[in-house]
Structures are given as C-alpha cells and as structure tokens.
Design brief:
Layout lengths: L6 H22 L4 H19 L5 H17 L3 H14 L4 H13 L3 H14 L4 H13 L3 H12 L11 H10 L3 H14 L4 H13 L3 H13 L3 H14 L3 H11 L1
Helix pairs in contact: 1-2, 1-3, 2-3, 3-4, 4-5, 5-6, 6-7, 7-8, 8-9, 9-10, 10-11, 11-12, 12-13, 13-14
Amino acid sequence: LMSTVDTAVRETAVPVLLIFAAVGVAALYGLPRRQGLAASAACLVLAVGLNMGKQGETGRARQHHWLGYGFEQLGLRANAVREYETALALDAENRETYYALSELYQAQGDNIRAGGLYESLVQRWPDERQARRALAEQHMAAGRAPEAVQLYRELVGEQADSTTAHLLPMLGEALALSGDIEGGIRAYREALELRPGISEAREKLALLYASTGQLPQALDACRILFGEGRVAEFGPLLAEVLIHSQRDDEAADVLEKVL
C-alpha cells in the first residue's frame, strides 16, 4: 500500500508514526507516562530533523509544526515557539499551528501576541468559534471589555438558547465591566432562565444586585447560594443585605452560621 503513496506524504508521516512507535515501546516496557512522552518527543525531533529539507513549503511547515510539538513536550518552550513561528511563516493556513503557538504565548504571559494570533484566526476563518471565544477572553484579560462584548454577542447570536447559555455569563461580565450594569444583569438572568444550574451567573447577579442597591433581588440570589451550602462565601453578603433591609435579627442568625 505504501508504494502507492506519494514519497512526500510518506516522509511527512514518519514523525507521526515514530510517535506511536515510541509510545508503544514505552507501554511495552512499562515506562512512566512522563518518560514515554519524553521518548516520543525525542523521536519526533530526530525524525523531523532527518526529513528536513525534503519537502515543499507546506511539507516543511508541517515538519516545523511537529518539531514545535516535540520541543513543547520536552518542556523547551522557546524552541517550540521558534518552530511554530517558522511553520506559520511557511504556511499561514494551518489552524493547528495558530492555536499551538497562541497557547504557548499565553503560557509565557504574552497576551498581546496571543491575541494577535487569535485575531488572525478570526480574520482568516470568520466561522471559527473557538478563536472568537479565545480572542474575547484575551480582550477581557487586556482590559478591553467593549471589544469582548461584541465578540460574545456574535457568539451568542440574536437569540440565546441552551447551546449558547454558557456564554451568557461571559457576556454579562463583559457588559458590566464596560459600564452597562443593567445589560450585565439581563445577560446573567437570561443564562439562569435557560440553564438554572449555571451557578456563576447567580453569583455575579448577587454581587451586582447588592452593589446597585437592588436589595430584594440581591436577597433572593444570596439566599439561594447560601442554601446551596455556600455559607462562607455568601453568608457575609447575605447578612449585609439583610442589615440594609432592616432585618437585623435574621442577619445575626446568618452570621452565627458563618462563624
């Protein structure tokens, strides 16, 4: 069968086949998982090095990608970054390399370059939802909440449903940080209407209601969280809301349970 396969394809497949071989040997001899991964990565680096220069640009890009992967598994992040960057320079159409490199940038604390890669992903593949969400998260980390709002709105769509409800708390946080507190509250409430089990939405609602003086709503949210066993986290807030609601005796009972 292999004789019918193009030589370039066979050479590109060598690193992958060696990974499986190394993992198999590691399992056969009972090597610990970490040692097995190291052996696989070392074989990968060796195989790619031997095959380097035998491919066209796309093939060489794949070789550099796998080299990056191998270095990453060995914990050599700087080498991995260099190889992934080279892979993208040779072939800017490989989504896997974008994601791998952006994750490494994030691990190094370089959110600006990670965000730039996610922006490139979104520009090249507008329907890539994973990239849109990652870019929105990068905007939030960089303090650019209004830009994150736009991306989260696009991800949620015109009408949220059970499949997009998990994105509503993120939209709510972005809206609140953008200064649209009521918009944030609506997003959190909609998330709970669609999926009542999203505790993050109720937590944020309790805090927003309390901070904006919406005491009856804050009281309801805090009571639910308190009843779910979140005594240490939301007991003090519940007591504070009760005190502001002129219900000192109930606040005292809550604080006794907290203490």
